Amino acid sequence: METKQLIITIVTIILILGLYYLTLLPKKKQEKEIKKMQDDLKKGDKVITYTGLSGTIEEILEDRIILKTRPDNVKLSIEKWAIAGLDDRTIEDSKTKNK
């Protein structure tokens, strides 16, 4: 009877470790990739934030960036961690769109 309980305990531990590797490790890998992207930002990059703001990086400070938004060129100071990714969409200027 004791060996059966031991086997069940070992199988349970293996299942828990398997679930850990299947769920948490991919998320950690994604977080590392996002952190690397945030560390590699440079002036002129087009980015989008987690809240949906998009614009072009005007200046990079230690833990913040100055983001210039379109179409009115409003400058905002945003934390680096708020950058969700690079924005590869083209941003049309409303003035040139109307011509």
Secondary-structure blueprint of this entry?
Blueprint: H1 2-39, E1 46-49, E2 54-60, E3 64-69, E4 75-79, E5 83-86, H2 94-97
Antiparallel strand pairs: 1-2, 1-5, 2-3, 3-4
> The CATH topology of the largest domain is what?
SH3 type barrels
Query: Main β-sheet, in a few words?
Result: 5 strands, antiparallel
Overall SS class:
alpha+beta
What is the multimeric organization of the chains shown?
single chain
Radius of gyration equals: 23 Å
CATH architecture of the largest domain: Roll
Taking the alpha carbons of the first and last residues, their distance comes to 84 Å
State the main characteristics.
alpha+beta, 2 helices, 99 residues
Structure at a glance:
With 99 residues, the protein is α+β, with helices and mostly antiparallel strands.
How would you describe this structure to a colleague?
The protein has 99 residues and is of the alpha+beta class. The protein has 2 domains: 1-40; 41-99, SH3 type barrels (Roll). The chain has 2 helices and 5 strands, in the order αβββββα. Strands 4-3-2-1-5 form a 5-stranded antiparallel sheet, covered by helices on one side. β1 (46-49) and β2 (54-60) form a beta hairpin. The protein is rod-shaped, with a radius of gyration of 23 Å.
